Protein backbone atom coordinates (compact mmCIF):
# COMPACT_ATOMS: atom_id res chain seq x y z
CA UNK A 1 0.00 0.00 0.00
CA UNK A 2 1.32 3.39 -0.97
CA UNK A 3 1.53 5.81 1.95
CA UNK A 4 0.25 9.36 1.66
CA UNK A 5 2.87 11.98 2.43
CA UNK A 6 2.22 15.69 2.82
CA UNK A 7 4.36 18.77 2.63
CA UNK A 8 3.35 22.39 3.02
CA UNK A 9 1.72 22.64 -0.42
CA UNK A 10 1.65 19.10 -1.76
CA UNK A 11 0.10 15.69 -1.28
CA UNK A 12 2.21 12.74 -2.43
CA UNK A 13 -0.07 9.77 -2.98
CA UNK A 14 -0.53 6.54 -4.84
CA UNK A 15 -1.59 6.47 -8.45
CA UNK A 16 -5.22 6.19 -9.49
CA UNK A 17 -6.58 5.12 -12.86
CA UNK A 18 -7.91 8.67 -13.31
CA UNK A 19 -4.30 9.95 -13.25
CA UNK A 20 -3.42 8.14 -16.47
CA UNK A 21 -4.62 10.72 -19.04
CA UNK A 22 -2.30 13.39 -17.58
CA UNK A 23 0.56 10.90 -17.47
CA UNK A 24 -0.11 9.83 -21.07
CA UNK A 25 -0.07 13.49 -22.17
CA UNK A 26 3.29 13.93 -20.42
CA UNK A 27 4.65 10.83 -22.17
CA UNK A 28 3.45 12.05 -25.58
CA UNK A 29 5.20 15.42 -25.22
CA UNK A 30 8.59 15.38 -26.97
CA UNK A 31 9.88 18.37 -25.00
CA UNK A 32 8.90 16.99 -21.59
CA UNK A 33 10.34 13.53 -22.25
CA UNK A 34 13.52 14.64 -24.02
CA UNK A 35 15.73 13.62 -21.07
CA UNK A 36 13.62 10.77 -19.68
CA UNK A 37 13.69 8.18 -22.42
CA UNK A 38 11.66 9.92 -25.12
CA UNK A 39 8.06 9.97 -26.20
CA UNK A 40 5.73 7.05 -25.60
CA UNK A 41 2.50 6.17 -27.35
CA UNK A 42 -0.58 5.40 -25.24
CA UNK A 43 0.26 1.69 -24.94
CA UNK A 44 3.86 2.37 -23.91
CA UNK A 45 2.66 5.03 -21.48
CA UNK A 46 0.24 2.55 -19.90
CA UNK A 47 3.07 0.03 -19.52
CA UNK A 48 5.26 2.64 -17.79
CA UNK A 49 2.34 3.83 -15.64
CA UNK A 50 1.58 0.26 -14.57
CA UNK A 51 5.27 -0.28 -13.84
CA UNK A 52 5.27 2.67 -11.44
CA UNK A 53 2.25 1.22 -9.65
CA UNK A 54 3.78 -2.27 -9.52
CA UNK A 55 7.13 -1.09 -8.18
CA UNK A 56 5.46 -0.56 -4.82
CA UNK A 57 4.66 -4.28 -4.53
CA UNK A 58 8.19 -5.29 -5.52
CA UNK A 59 10.23 -2.79 -3.48
CA UNK A 60 8.00 -1.34 -0.78
CA UNK A 61 8.55 2.07 -2.37
CA UNK A 62 8.07 3.73 -5.73
CA UNK A 63 6.81 6.84 -7.46
CA UNK A 64 4.18 9.08 -5.92
CA UNK A 65 1.66 11.16 -7.82
CA UNK A 66 2.24 14.81 -6.83
CA UNK A 67 -0.97 16.73 -6.19
CA UNK A 68 -0.96 20.39 -5.15
CA UNK A 69 -3.28 21.01 -2.21
CA UNK A 70 -4.81 24.00 -4.00
CA UNK A 71 -5.55 22.16 -7.27
CA UNK A 72 -7.57 19.15 -8.30
CA UNK A 73 -4.89 17.88 -10.66
CA UNK A 74 -1.73 15.81 -10.69
CA UNK A 75 1.35 18.01 -11.16
CA UNK A 76 3.81 15.22 -11.90
CA UNK A 77 5.57 12.47 -10.01
CA UNK A 78 8.39 12.00 -7.53
CA UNK A 79 9.76 9.05 -5.68
CA UNK A 80 12.17 6.18 -5.55
CA UNK A 81 13.05 3.94 -8.44
CA UNK A 82 15.38 0.95 -8.18
CA UNK A 83 15.79 -1.05 -11.37
CA UNK A 84 18.40 -3.84 -11.33
CA UNK A 85 20.88 -1.73 -13.33
CA UNK A 86 21.67 0.62 -10.43
CA UNK A 87 23.10 -0.09 -6.98
CA UNK A 88 21.14 2.36 -4.83
CA UNK A 89 17.57 3.59 -5.09
CA UNK A 90 17.21 6.61 -7.35
CA UNK A 91 15.34 9.70 -6.24
CA UNK A 92 13.59 10.92 -9.39
CA UNK A 93 11.08 13.63 -10.28
CA UNK A 94 9.20 15.03 -13.26
CA UNK A 95 6.61 17.76 -13.48
CA UNK A 96 3.82 18.13 -15.99
CA UNK A 97 3.42 21.16 -18.22
CA UNK A 98 2.20 24.21 -16.32
CA UNK A 99 3.56 23.12 -12.93
CA UNK A 100 7.22 24.11 -13.32
CA UNK A 101 8.83 27.08 -11.60
CA UNK A 102 6.85 26.78 -8.37
CA UNK A 103 9.36 24.78 -6.35
CA UNK A 104 7.18 21.66 -6.42
CA UNK A 105 9.98 19.30 -7.49
CA UNK A 106 12.25 20.40 -4.64
CA UNK A 107 9.45 20.37 -2.06
CA UNK A 108 8.21 16.93 -3.09
CA UNK A 109 11.69 15.42 -3.33
CA UNK A 110 12.65 16.80 0.10
CA UNK A 111 9.60 15.13 1.59
CA UNK A 112 10.61 11.83 -0.05
CA UNK A 113 14.17 12.23 1.31
CA UNK A 114 12.81 12.50 4.86
CA UNK A 115 10.47 9.52 4.35
CA UNK A 116 13.30 7.42 2.87
CA UNK A 117 15.56 8.20 5.83
CA UNK A 118 13.10 8.05 8.72
CA UNK A 119 10.62 5.39 7.65
CA UNK A 120 12.53 3.21 5.19
CA UNK A 121 16.02 3.61 6.71
CA UNK A 122 17.50 3.60 3.22
CA UNK A 123 21.14 4.31 2.40
CA UNK A 124 22.00 7.49 0.51
CA UNK A 125 19.95 7.88 -2.66
CA UNK A 126 21.19 8.63 -6.16
CA UNK A 127 19.81 10.82 -8.91
CA UNK A 128 20.80 10.35 -12.54
CA UNK A 129 20.35 13.52 -14.60
CA UNK A 130 20.96 14.02 -18.31
CA UNK A 131 23.78 16.57 -18.85
CA UNK A 132 21.43 18.81 -20.86
CA UNK A 133 18.68 18.79 -18.22
CA UNK A 134 19.62 22.00 -16.43
CA UNK A 135 16.33 22.20 -14.51
CA UNK A 136 16.84 18.79 -12.88
CA UNK A 137 20.46 19.60 -12.14
CA UNK A 138 19.26 22.70 -10.31
CA UNK A 139 16.74 20.62 -8.33
CA UNK A 140 19.45 18.15 -7.31
CA UNK A 141 21.70 20.99 -6.16
CA UNK A 142 18.88 22.66 -4.20
CA UNK A 143 18.30 19.31 -2.50
CA UNK A 144 21.92 19.34 -1.35
CA UNK A 145 22.92 16.38 -3.52
CA UNK A 146 26.63 15.93 -4.04
CA UNK A 147 27.90 15.60 -7.64
CA UNK A 148 29.76 12.38 -8.41
CA UNK A 149 31.54 11.08 -11.48
CA UNK A 150 29.36 10.88 -14.60
CA UNK A 151 28.07 7.52 -15.81
CA UNK A 152 25.85 5.95 -18.45
CA UNK A 153 22.32 4.77 -17.92
CA UNK A 154 20.36 2.99 -20.65
CA UNK A 155 23.17 3.82 -23.06
CA UNK A 156 22.99 7.58 -22.46
CA UNK A 157 25.29 9.87 -20.47
CA UNK A 158 24.10 10.84 -17.00
CA UNK A 159 25.38 13.06 -14.25
CA UNK A 160 25.22 11.31 -10.88
CA UNK A 161 24.20 13.01 -7.67
CA UNK A 162 24.31 11.40 -4.20
CA UNK A 163 21.70 12.51 -1.69
CA UNK A 164 22.88 12.37 1.90
CA UNK A 165 19.66 11.74 3.77
CA UNK A 166 18.66 13.64 6.90
CA UNK A 167 19.65 11.91 10.14
TrEMBL record:
Residues 10-167 form the N-acetyltransferase domain. Keywords: Transferase. One of its GO terms (molecular function) is acyltransferase activity, transferring groups other than amino-acyl groups. InterPro entries: Acyl_CoA_acyltransferase, GNAT_dom, N-acetyltransferase. This is Protein N-acetyltransferase, RimJ/RimL family.
Amino acid sequence: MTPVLESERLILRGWQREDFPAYAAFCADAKRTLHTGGQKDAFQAWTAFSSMVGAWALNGYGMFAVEPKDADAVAGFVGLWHPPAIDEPELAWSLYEGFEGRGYAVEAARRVQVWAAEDLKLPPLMSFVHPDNLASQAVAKRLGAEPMSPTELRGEPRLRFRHVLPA
